[in-house]
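pipeline: protein-struct stage 2 | run 1193 | Tyr recombinase domain-containing protein
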Amino acid sequence: MGLILKYIEKTKSGSWQYRRRVPKDVAAVITKREFKRKLGDSQREAVAAYARCHAEVEREIAEAKRGRVRSELAKSAKASEREAYAEALRWRAELVASQEDLEITADNLADAYPQDYNGPIGVPPLDRYKINLLRNAPGKIKVPEPTLGDALKLYLKEHLNEGSPETDSRTVGLARRVIHAAISAMGRDPMLSAITREDARTVRDEMLDRVKVRGRGVGGKVSAATVSRELTIIAAIINFAKVEFGLGDVVQNPFSRLPVERVAKGQGRKASEKRDPLPKAVLMQTRNRVIANGSKSLALIWRLVEGTGCRIAEVTGLRVEDVKVGGDLPHIRIEPHGLRGLKTETSRRQVPLVGDALAAAKEALEVAPDALMLFPEYGRIRGADAASAALMKHLRRISTDEKHVIHSLRHNMKDRLVLVEAASLDQNLILGHALGGVGDRVYGGEVAKLRATTRVMKRAFGLED
C-alpha cells in the first residue's frame, strides 16, 4: 500500500521526498518556489521523518504569514475601505487567473490572525476584503461608498495631476490641508453621502477659530476671506467627486453657499477689497527705488509685472524659450513646467509685450542668453516668494497701506484695460482669468487672439500705431 501522507512523493532514484509549493500569499517573504527535503531512501524512513519535516515547514509558513501581516498592517490600515476593496478585487482576479484554490487561500489568510468564535479578529480592511471576496462572489460584497478622503485622492490624481512636473505643489498642498482639516473637525473621514450641513458648519466654525501663526497679524484670528477660499476648495472637491464617482443627485454638497462673512461678524474683506491699485505716485516712486537700489533681475521683474499684469510667479518662472521679442507680435508664453506650475488652466496663455515691458524683456535676454531660466536667481521652487519679499521691502518704504502689495500691479493693469474699454474676453486673455462661454474657451486661433490683445495692450499704454 502506497503512502497517503500529503506532500510526499517518490523520486526517480527510488528515494522519498517532501515537496510542497510555497503558498502565493507568502511568496514575497519566502522567495523560493517550493519546499523540497529528502525524507529517506525507504518508505519506513519517510514515514518516520515526515512529522518533523512537515511541522518545520508549517512553522516557517506561519512565521512568514505573521511577518507579511506585520509588514502590510501599516500599509493596509491606511487604505480607505474603497481602496482596500479595489485592491482585494484585483488580487482575487490574479488568483483566479493562476487557478489558485480561493477557499484554501482565504483560510490561509484568515489563519494568520487571532481567532474567536466569529472568525479572525483585528483584520485590517485590505485583508478583510480579500477574505470576503475569496469566499464570496464579488457581486455579493457591496462596493464601499466613497469618503471625503477618497474624493481628495481622486481630485489630486485626476484634476490636479499630482506628481506631474507641471503641477503646482502648493495647490496640491493646500487641497490636502483643507480636506485633512475638515476630516479632523468632523472627527472622522465621512462618506460623501453622510456629510450634513451641520458637519459643514462645524468645519467652518473650526476654521474661523484658528489663530494666525505666521505672516501679518500673528496671534489674530484667520480672516473670513481665507476661510471662504478654503471652503470653496472643499466644495469643488466634492463636486468633482460627485461626477467622477457617478453619485449624481444622490449626494448633495453641504459646503455650497455656506455663509462665512456674516457668521464671522465682519471678519475679513471681499476679494475686491483686499488689494488696491497702486496710486501713480506710489507706483513711480517704488519703481524708481527698485531700479536704483535693487538688483538688475529684481528691477526687470518689476517692469515685466507692471507692463504685463502677470502674476509675479509667472514672471519669475519664465524660461528663456518663453520670451519672444521678434516679429510684429512680441510676447511671453505662460505655461507650466518643472519649476513652476500655474494657478489655473486658464492661466496658460500668451501675453503681449509692448513699451517698457518689451524693453525689459530684451534686456533680460541679453543678461541670460545661455541660461534655461530668464531669471536664474528667482527661477526656482519658491523663487517667486523670494522676489515678492524683496520687492515688498522697497514698496513698504514708500507706502505702509496694507492694500498696497506687489499683486496690486495686476489691479493697475485691470484699471488700464477698463479705461480703454477693452472687451471682457481681451481682459481675461491678458490677465489669465477664467474665460466665459465655450466659444471663448475653445474657438479662435492663438495668433488671432494675440493680435487682438496686442492692440488692446498698446491702447492701454497709449502706444497705438
